[in-house]
Amino acid sequence: MQKIHELTTILADQIAAGEVIERPASVVKELMENAIDAHATQIDILLEEAGIKKIEIIDNGFGISQDEVELAFRRHATSKIVNRTDLFKIKTLGFRGEALPSIAAIADVTMTTAVKDKPGMLINIKGGQIIIKKSAPARVGTAIVVKNLFFNTPARLKYLKTPNTELSKIVDIVNRLALSYPNIAFNLKHEDHQLLKTAGNGNVQQVIANIYGLKNAQKMLTIETENIDFKVSGFISLPELTRASREYISILINGRYIKNYQLVKALLTGYGSRLMVGRYPLAVISINMDPLLVDVNVHPTKQEVRLSQESQLMELLTSVVQERLATLNLMPDGYQNL
Ligand code: ADP
Ligand code: MG
């Protein structure tokens, strides 16, 4: 047995990376979240070999200043929260300061970034080690290229599924973020194939059409309701439009796509007997609430949240869905047209 000693930063980052970065889709999610937090209005995602060989994400957000670029890659370094109270009212998608150091620990990462009216910066980090850091011309915003993911963690690389499965997980996360942020123009390309392109004009139904097709988008109903704590709005499909899996239900809390079985259940309860067993609607439901009512600091991937008034929210969701579907009997053609 050896003496107790602290792990090197590189090793600690590699270990922590295991929690945040499971697969190429996790890289895409974290980097897109950073671009969104930087107020980008255009985000391009370019992939090679399902992201395993290369993921490139280009945003037109506010960029990182030269003197902060290296710090951005250190663990627990963030510009998004400062003190303990901030932790209870998180308005950004990121806050843990873990994504960049984690990704840089297990891949070959090059970031080019610039803030307004300042020279840009290029940094290349491979397996946690800075290889290049220099001034470089750059547009305002950030471009990041992640190559050879898991090159130094062979067990992780082996655990990946087929490229098709990995790609579908990336498409899924990009779709959900596009649905969450209709004001941002997303462009997703895998090699020569364009997999998604949204206009960024704020029209959710148009994004639904981009993802699920125009015909389906025309079979969506709007819902909207609020009480003192919650504001619920979004789109739910006509009962005739269903799928065999609940994957087509997206629930967003304060702009964050989350996984919450209870809220899905509340939605399904609203449909009641209109759904056949094993069939699920399509839905994009956006819930806004005081950040104090939601704890996002449950898991490193930030997809699970704890809600302090979950049952009240479930009731609100069930009743708005019920009431909206009840109007169908009155006016069968009462759905929106694009
Ligand atoms: P977190 O997002 O939790 O703060 P990250 O490791 O993802 O942690 O990023 C660290 C910091 O780097 C962020 O807080 C932010 O200041 C900066 N940053 C990362 N990506 C971008 C980006 N695309 N545009 C502007 N700033 C960024
Ligand atoms: Mg982040």
UniProtKB/TrEMBL annotation:
* Lineage top rank: taxon: Bacteria
Q: Which residue numbers delimit the DNA mismatch repair protein S5 domain?
A: 208-326
Q: Does the keyword Thylakoid apply?
A: no
Q: Does the keyword DNA damage apply?
A: yes
Alphabetical keyword list: DNA damage, DNA repair, Endonuclease, Hydrolase, Nuclease
For this UniProt entry, the molecular function terms from Gene Ontology, in alphabetical order, are: endonuclease activity
Summarizing the function annotation, the protein's role is: This protein is involved in the repair of mismatches in DNA. It is required for dam-dependent methyl-directed DNA mismatch repair. May act as a 'molecular matchmaker', a protein that promotes the formation of a stable complex between two or more DNA-binding proteins in an ATP-dependent manner without itself being part of a final effector complex.
Q: Which family does it belong to?
A: Belongs to the DNA mismatch repair MutL/HexB family.
Put simply, this protein is called DNA mismatch repair protein MutL
Instruction: Give from-to of the shown chain within the full protein.
Output: 1 to 338 of 673
